[in-house]
Every structure is written in C-alpha cells, then in structure tokens.
Amino acid sequence: MDRALATRHVMQANKSKDTGPELKVRAALREAGLPGYRLHWKKASGRPDVCYPGRHIAIFVNGCYWHRCPWCSLPTPKSNVAFWEEKFARNRARDARNYDELVRDGWKVLVTWECRLKRERFRPTMEALVAEVARADGHQEPAVIEVGAPPAWHLGVARKRLGRHGRR
C-alpha cells in the first residue's frame, strides 16, 4: 500500500462523533445527575457535541489536533504544509463562527479540550463543566467559556519556568 493511501485510511478512521473524550464528558454529566441532553442537535448552530436546549447550554469537546489546542502546541504535518495550515485555519474559523452564532442566539457555549480530560486535569475540568451546566436555567448571560483552561497567570508562570522558547 502506498504512503498516500495509508494516510488516507488513517484520516478516514478518525471519528467525528462518539469520540473517547466526548464519551467521558457524557458519562460524567450522567454521573452528576444531568441527563436529558441532546447529542449533535441539528437545531443548534454547529451541532454541539452535547446540548441542553432548555438550559441553552452547548458543549463542544474539541480534539487538540483538529481544532489546534492553544496549550498543546502540536506540530503541523511536515508534508503538504500549505494544505494542513489551510485546513486547520478553516476548522478554527468554523468553530468561531459556530460559537458566535450560538451566543447571538442566547446560548452559553462551553468548550473543553481533549487534553483537559486526561489524568489529573479530568476531575477539575469536569467539576467546572458540571457546575456551569447545573447553574444554567436558560436565562444566563450568553458567553463562550473554555472549561478547564489554566488561568492566564498560570500560563505566564509556566512559560517563565520553561524559558523563553518553552523548553527546559
């Protein structure tokens, strides 16, 4: 099998629904006593991964690679760089458009990243997400909230500790 065909098969195997991180979020929401959500609800802009129509809450569980996580600093593929940069830019523009449309329609948009659902970050991220959903009554201020994001001061401290170029 040639390399291009192999790459094509790998890319086609990536799921857009029912991903591991998405399943973890849904399980935590059920465990917290917050069932009753809709999955990929067509009536909400961008078809959020998890949606609470009555509470006007839309949850997006973003994969770090495809949505270009601001904390992971993932490299761009070395071959066909122009294609990948354009692809990632389109993904990010689409995300921003979906979030803006939901906010305009009065929704609170909760965005969490795949890396925030791993190991020691999972529990605090899910506690914050569950708290946002639990207190929503459908009349809250529309906004986009990155759940599990490190506070800005924490990023500055981490960068200083790692040095100017982010390396130890």
Could you outline the blueprint of secondary structure elements for this entry?
Layout: H1 3-12, H2 20-31, E1 38-39, E2 50-52, E3 57-62, H3 64-67, H4 81-104, E4 108-113, H5 119-135, E5 143-146, H6 152-162
Structure report:
The chain is an alpha/beta fold and 168 residues long. The chain has one domain (27-162): VSR Endonuclease (Endonuclease, Chain A, 3-Layer(aba) Sandwich), CATH 3.40.960. The chain has 6 helices and 5 strands. The protein has helices at 3-12, 20-31, 64-67, 81-104, 119-135, 152-162, and strands at residues 38-39, 50-52, 57-62, 108-113, 143-146. It has a 5-stranded mixed beta sheet with strand order 1-2-3-4-5, with helices on both faces. Strand 2 (50-52) and strand 3 form a beta hairpin. The radius of gyration is 17 Å and the shape is globular.
Structural descriptors:
12% strand, alpha/beta, Endonuclease, Chain A, 168 residues, 6 helices, 5 strands
Outline of this structure?
With 168 residues, the protein is of the alpha/beta class. It has six helices and five strands; from the N terminus they run H-H-E-E-E-H-H-E-H-E-H.
The CATH class turns out to be Alpha Beta
Number of helices: 6
Uncertain parts: 164-168
Number of strands: 5
Can you tell me the overall shape? globular
Strand content: 5-15%
Overall CATH architecture: 3-Layer(aba) Sandwich
* Percent range of helical residues: 40-55%
Rg, Cα atoms, Å: 17 Å
Instruction: Look at the helices and sheets and give the structural class.
Output: alpha/beta
Find the CATH superfamily: VSR Endonuclease
SSE order: HHEEEHHEHEH
N- and C-termini, Cα separation: 40 Å
Mean pLDDT: 85
The CATH topology annotation reads as Endonuclease, Chain A
The biggest beta sheet reads: 5 strands, mixed
Total domain units: 1
In the sheet with the most strands, the strands line up as 1-2-3-4-5
